[in-house]
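A quick aside before the break. I want you to see a complete sequence-to-structure record at least once, exactly as it would be stored in a machine-readable document. Don't worry about memorizing anything.
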Amino acid sequence: MPKQIHLAAHFPGVNNTTVWTDPRSASQIDFGSFVHLAETAERGKFDFFFLAEGLRLREMKGRIHDLDVAGRPESLTVLSALSAVTTRLGLAATVNSTFNEPYEVARRLATVDHLSGGRAAWNVVTSWDAFTGENFRRGGYLDEADRYARAAEFLHTARELWDSWADGDLPADPAAGEFARPGAGAFAHHGAQFGIAGRFNAPRPPQGHPVIIQAGDSYEGREFAAADADVIFSRHGTLEDGRAFYKDVKGRLARYGRRPADLKIMPAVTYVLGDTEEDAAERAAEIRRAQVSPQNAIAFLEGYWGRDLSAYDPDGPLPDIDPDLGDGVSQGRAQFRGDRAETVRRWRELAGERGLSIRELVIEATARQTFVGTARSVADRIDEFVQTDAADGFVFVPHLTPGGLDDLVEHVVPLLQEKGVFRADYTGPTLRDHLGLRPPAAGSARSEREAS
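That is the input. The structure line, written in tokens, reads:
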């Protein structure tokens, strides 16, 4: 029997992914935009709808980076509202574990899970920079190992809070004076990162624990996912890279007493459809040029060069000056954290070999269209990834807000259903049902702590 494909929808609205010059693009803040994409995803029987999070407006050369969209609503608030206009679609929020506290995050996620009837998910992320930390009382930042240690204990603490109410603790009839047992909600956690005790005031979520998502690709991130996540986002969009990542992460699960089916690997991908393969390729090239405007190309290069390059022609050759490897000119963008000197070296080599201008190089280096072709060829390619263990499914990031998934749901999803590799309808009410995940046992977090 073929593997079943999992699909998710990412709401675009920041970076240069969305083509804002397209007349079909609408607001990234208006609730109607969120509703449109969520309803489209639910019509397509997607597993979940995903919102990213940003805790500070990014800056370039000391000013707000206005090529980004300046403004992003808080994820859990939006998803709470969407729970009222959807019935089966999972609702996944990115919530930071570096600048939040377990009690409040656990309470908010439990609330969304209750409001939605068991459809909440939490994408656990960490922050690496003091720039973001300036928005918070604690300030500062954590070293790489420390932020994952905090994230792991943060998650385990949240699970203890959810488990502090057993499944039978919800009052049957509070109006008649029938309340939960006296011990309901009692917790005490004393660890390296958190020392808290009291009573948790949100009953155990319908799913037991909301679904946990993780997106790290480092060694620490992969270990965190293998130990604690239900879904991991992947950046590996080719068959070869996807299979290597899949094998590596799935191979880590046994050390934590978990099965391969307990963790779903879902790369973030895009798509472009056309009537023919040539038509699709032409459309994809047009979209890439719209996403990488001349201004975006220069700004992107500045992030790696660490210099003001505004005097350079985006349609001309790469700068002939060496990068400044100091603090740089970009604040709040993780992509510029790596070995910038090596990146510049590789880009010079690529541009020289192919005669690429600045803009052409950035288009090549940031290519995003994973699936380009006719509806039939895209459906076949999606299926190939999953059946050959390069992924368990995909998180689609459309280039239009909010109608960017319309064509996928209308033309590709029916072909996947026809192939018998994607559901014709939801078979259960919760996100764990959609993903085929086992429910956590009540008290599992407590048992984990005692075993350690």
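Two observations worth writing down. The first helix runs from residue 31 to 43. The mean pLDDT is 87. We'll return to this after the break.
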